[in-house]
Amino acid sequence: MIKLPQSIADAVENFSKLPGVGEKTAFRQIMGLVNWDPENLETLAFSIQKLSQIKKCVECGLYTETDRCAVCTSDERQDAKILCVVESISDLMAIEKSQNFNGIYHVLGGVLNPLMGIGPHDLKIDRLVDRVKKYNIETVILAVNPSVEGDATCSYIGQQLVGVQVERIGFGIPMGGSLEYLDPLTITKALENRKSINS
User: Fold this and answer.
1) 25-80: pLDDT as tens digits
2) Best exposed site among 38, 83, 116, 147 by fewest CB in 10 Å?
3) d(CA 164, CA 162)
């Protein structure tokens, strides 16, 4: 059997550590990279190496190259007096893409799950409460995914933020969706989040 250079085997092994990438996919990707120009390979390697310098914002938890991210250092964002709580950085980025939110964020990094040993301290909910006080936040939007754990997390956060308006984003039928193809939870949430059209 032909033995490929060890550098290829090492690269395949490391690529296969990526989420959703198996050994076959990793092998195909590496075989493609082998054909790149050395200059392009060095640029790729340098950009990956720089990922080791990425930090999490000490305020909200978003990835940044400094101690505080661009959102948390924006006076305009802070002056909005509104804070959006999300489970993950991916959720934060999805909200940013909508371009409909101009406040600051707080990334929980998950939801309460006693069975998995995830409690309020693990989600740094005390830091969230401190930030709400520090920036005189008037409205907190809970953009937490609908689930038993998500509902429990929202309920707990609501109990901690006394005197602050706490809202949860609406869940329901997506644009272009058809009722017959939706799951019961989505329909339930759609019914719960209905609003008047003649007021």
Assistant:
1) 999 999 999 999 999 999 999 999 999 999 999 999 999 999 999 999 999 999 99
2) 38
3) 6
Distance CA 111, CA 123 (A): 7
Query: Are the C-beta atoms of 140 and 132 separated by less than 8 Å?
Result: yes
Domain boundaries, the chain: 6-53, 75-168
Which CATH number applies to 75-168? 3.40.1360.10
Q: Which two tokens stand for residue 82?
A: 């509104």
Q: Return phi, psi of residue 183, to 5°.
A: -80, 160
Alpha carbons 175 and 197: distance in angstroms, whole number: 17
Q: Is 6 exposed, middle or buried (0-12, 13-18, 19+ CB in 10 A)?
A: exposed
What are the structure tokens assigned to 79, written together?
Answer: 């002056």
Its pTM stands at 0.79
Rounded Cα distance, 165 and 170, in Å: 16
Q: Which CATH class is domain 6-53?
A: mainly alpha
User: Phi and psi for 197 in degrees, rounded to 5?
Assistant: -110, 5
pLDDT at 198: 54
Q: Which residue has the tokens 């790729």?
A: 44
The total of other beta-carbon atoms located within 10 Å of residue 35's CB is 7
